[in-house]
Specification:
The structure is a single chain. The chain is an all-alpha fold. The protein has one domain. Helix content is 77%, strand content 0%. The protein has 7 helices and no strands. The longest helix has 29 residues.
C-alpha cells in the first residue's frame, strides 16, 4: 500500500520540496569537493577513493531515513528495497575507499587498520568501517544464525550508531578535498537522520 498523501497535491508539493532539499544537501559537498585545489596534486586512484568516501557519507545519510520510512513518496516495500540496495552500495564504497587508499599508500592503510596510525581520523574511520561490515554481515547471516528479531534489531541499531558516529568524526577530522561548511552540514544531516530514525522506530515499536 502506498502512502496516502501521494494523492493530495499539497502533500506532493511538500514531498517534492523535501526531496529537492535533501538532494541538494547530499550533492553540494560532492560538487564542492570536486572544485578543491587539493585534487590538482593527487593521483586519479586517490581522488576516486576519496570520492567513494564522500559518496558513502551521502548514502549513510539516506539509510536511516529509508529504514524508518521517513522519506515521503515511497511505499514501505520500495523504501525497504532501496535500503537494502543502499547497504550493499555502502559496503562497496567503503571497500573502494580503503582499497584505493591502500594502492596509493599501503603503509598508512596498514597502520590505520592495526590502530597504529597517529591520526585520530584514521582510528574513527576504521571503527566505522568494521561497524558497517558487521552490520551488513548481520543482515546476510540473520536467517542462517536464527537470530531473533529483537536481538537482530538491537544489534543492527548499535552497529549503525557506531558507524554513523565514527564516519562523522572521521570526516570532520580530515582536512582534505571536502569544503568545511558543506562537510559539517552533511555530517550534521547524517547524525540528525539517525536520531530521527531511532525516535521514529522507537515510537512505532
Amino acid at each position: 500500500m502506498r502512502i496516502s498523501f501521494l494523492s493530495q497535491p499539497e502533500n506532493r508539493t511538500r514531498a517534492g520540496l523535501i526531496w529537492a532539499g535533501l538532494i541538494a544537501i547530499l550533492l553540494v559537498p560532492v560538487v564542492a569537493a570536486s572544485q578543491s585545489p587539493y585534487l590538482q596534486w593527487r593521483d586519479p586512484i586517490y581522488i576516486a577513493s576519496g570520492f567513494a568516501g564522500i559518496i558513502g557519507l551521502a548514502v549513510l545519510a539516506l539509510q536511516p531515513l529509508l529504514a524508518s520510512r521517513l522519506l515521503p513518496g515511497l511505499a514501505p516495500m520500495t523504501s525497504r528495497r532501496i535500503h537494502r540496495i543502499g547497504g550493499a552500495a555502502l559496503v562497496v564504497l567503503v571497500v573502494g575507499h580503503v582499497f584505493g587508499l591502500w594502492l596509493t599508500s599501503p603503509p598508512d592503510v596498514v597502520d590505520a587498520l592495526l590502530f597504529r596510525s597517529p591520526t585520530p581520523f584514521s582510528v574513527w574511520g576504521v571503527i566505522a568501517m568494521w561497524a558497517i561490515f558487521l552490520a551488513a554481515a548481520l543482515v546476510m547471516l540473520r536467517r542462517r544464525l536464527r537470530i531473533s528479531p529483537t536481538t537482530w534489531k538491537r544489534g543492527h541499531k548499535a552497529l549503525v550508531v557506531i558507524a554513523v558516529a565514527g564516519t562523522a568524526l572521521h570526516a570532520l577530522l580530515i582536512e582534505g578535498a571536502m569544503e568545511p561548511v558543506s562537510k559539517a552540514m552533511l555530517c550534521g544531516v547524517v547524525v540528525a537522520a539517525l536520531v530521527a530514525a531511532l525516535f521514529r522506530l522507537r515510537r512505532s515499536s
